[in-house]
């Protein structure tokens, strides 16, 4: 009987993570498809460098607004209902962008899609983290990042296959996962921790008993939740001294995830490579290779975050991203992007994708969803998402201009320096969260043992 219950709970947890992570698939597809669509949109709408950056960045601005707005909604209405609202926005935005007949309508539609993407990035990782058992939380939350990477790969393949067809079809295909997300979420349970925060302890117990291996395990977990149960805290809580280490770690990863250049590569790789003489078809194929690398490395990361640990994974992978970008910058600086040089250039950019996505991009939503106390988890994750999208907005608005001013080689070297900085940030500020319950992480914040380097003990030792 216990074995049957365990299998049932595991299957339900997997299904919940799968449906919720469809929001990540939409996230990846709608942010990635613009890279191929721009090659058609630019001549049709006579886009300049600046207007291309605006169309691309509209989704990022929307995401910034959406993730901030989602925090109070997710705390008031619940994680599940907020995801349903995001799915509705995905549907509306996809229909409008498919039939857009001007730059203004196109930009507005991308803004609506951004609202949905931002809300998803804020709430889906929290929803999964609050339902998943501690020993599987890493892999299940990384399913969201896997869905993002898979969505980007699908968008790159779609862009390549449809390069001789209308960009409208490229955008319109996004309606399929939006419908799956909307319908699927109608049948999923609320987060047990959100229910507990509302005082609905019996409902929280019922959900936990459905997704844990035994009733006893569910009851123990509910007791941990209720022992640390607090009312919803205001925004200022995440800046208080006891929560500040979590804010520094999570927001730092969120900022560095973008400032290290991963989305600059994703959004503009076809344009940069086409300008370097690769040709449109070859440039699009390079994006497909990037997408395959993303899916492969996130799949590995989904295993590594629970086997190695979040912090260990980042510290092992980030140096590879630095080396890859240094090589990539040299190839563009030397103009060696043809013949044999083209293969070295492509290998370097795929290598960068593997090491950067496999570290910071794998960790961002996972660490953000697990380090904050329950009372301010929604607010904290909103801050994480806002930092991510704010940095992404800056990168998407400036990448083509940086390439024009510094050259592709100089731009990639700049990103290499930021990647090196991220290594030392993780080393100093990001703790290992592998295998620890959300309540244990909260306790470490309260007793001052959260940060990997104990400042008080370090100061005492130095004296």
Automatic annotation (TrEMBL):
It is a multi-pass membrane protein. One of its GO terms (molecular function) is transmembrane transporter activity. Residues 16-434 form the Major facilitator superfamily (MFS) profile domain. The chain crosses the membrane at residues 12-39, 51-71, 83-100, 106-128, 140-161, 167-188, 246-269, 281-305, 317-336, 342-368, 380-400, 412-430. One of its GO terms (cellular component) is plasma membrane. It is found in: Cell membrane. Pfam families: Sugar_tr (PF00083). InterPro entries: MFS_dom (IPR020846), MFS_sugar_transport-like (IPR005828), MFS_trans_sf (IPR036259), Myo-inositol_Transporter (IPR050814), Sugar/inositol_transpt (IPR003663), Sugar_transporter_CS (IPR005829). Keywords: Cell membrane, Membrane, Sugar transport, Transmembrane, Transmembrane helix, Transport. Belongs to the major facilitator superfamily. Sugar transporter (TC 2.A.1.1) family. This is MFS transporter. It comes from Swaminathania salitolerans.
């Amino acid at each position: 009987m216990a074995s049957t219950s365990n299998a049932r709970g595991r299957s339900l947890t997997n299904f919940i993570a799968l449906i919720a992570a469809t929001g990540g698939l939409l996230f990846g597809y709608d942010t990635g498809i613009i890279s191929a669509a721009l090659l058609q949109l630019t001549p049709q709408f006579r886009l300049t460098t600046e207007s291309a950056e605006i169309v691309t960045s509209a989704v990022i601005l929307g995401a910034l607004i959406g993730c901030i707005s989602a925090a109070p909604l997710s705390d008031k209405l619940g994680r599940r209902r907020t995801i349903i609202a995001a799915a509705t926005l995905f549907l509306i935005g996809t229909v409008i962008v498919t039939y857009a007949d001007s730059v203004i309508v196109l930009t507005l539609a991308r803004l609506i899609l951004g609202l949905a993407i931002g809300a998803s990035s804020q709430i889906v990782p929290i929803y999964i983290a609050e339902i998943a058992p501690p020993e599987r939380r890493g892999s299940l939350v990384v399913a969201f990042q896997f869905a993002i990477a898979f969505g980007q790969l699908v968008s790159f393949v779609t862009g390549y296959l449809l390069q001789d067809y209308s960009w409208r079809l490229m955008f319109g295909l996004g309606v399929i996962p939006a419908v799956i997300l909307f319908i699927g979420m109608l049948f999923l349970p609320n987060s047990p921790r959100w229910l507990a925060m509302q005082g609905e302890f019996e409902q929280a117990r019922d959900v936990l008993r459905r997704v844990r291996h035994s009733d006893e395990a569910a009851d123990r977990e509910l007791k941990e939740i209720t022992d640390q149960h607090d009312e919803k805290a205001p925004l200022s809580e995440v800046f208080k001294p006891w929560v500040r280490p979590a804010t520094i770690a999570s927001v730092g990863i969120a900022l560095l995830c973008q400032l290290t250049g991963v989305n600059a590569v994703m959004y503009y790789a076809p344009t940069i490579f086409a300008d370097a003489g690769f040709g449109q078809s070859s440039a699009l194929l390079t994006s497909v290779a990037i997408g395959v690398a993303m899916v492969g490395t996130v799949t590995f990361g989904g295993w590594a975050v629970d086997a190695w640990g979040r912090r260990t994974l980042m510290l092992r992978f980030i140096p590879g991203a630095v080396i890859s970008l240094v090589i990539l910058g040299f190839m563009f600086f030397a103009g060696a992007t043809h013949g044999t040089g083209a293969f070295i250039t492509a290998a370097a950019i795929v290598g960068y994708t593997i090491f950067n996505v496999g570290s910071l991009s794998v960790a961002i939503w996972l660490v953000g969803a697990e380090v904050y106390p329950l009372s301010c988890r929604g607010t904290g994750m909103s801050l994480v998402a806002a930092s991510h999208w704010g940095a992404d907005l800056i990168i998407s608005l400036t990448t083509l201009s940086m390439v024009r001013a510094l050259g592709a080689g100089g731009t990639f070297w700049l990103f290499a320096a930021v990647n090196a900085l991220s290594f030392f940030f993780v080393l100093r500020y990001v703790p290992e969260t592998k295998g620890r319950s959300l309540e244990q992480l909260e306790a470490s914040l309260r007793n001052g043992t959260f940060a990997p380097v104990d400042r008080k003990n370090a100061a005492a030792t130095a004296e």
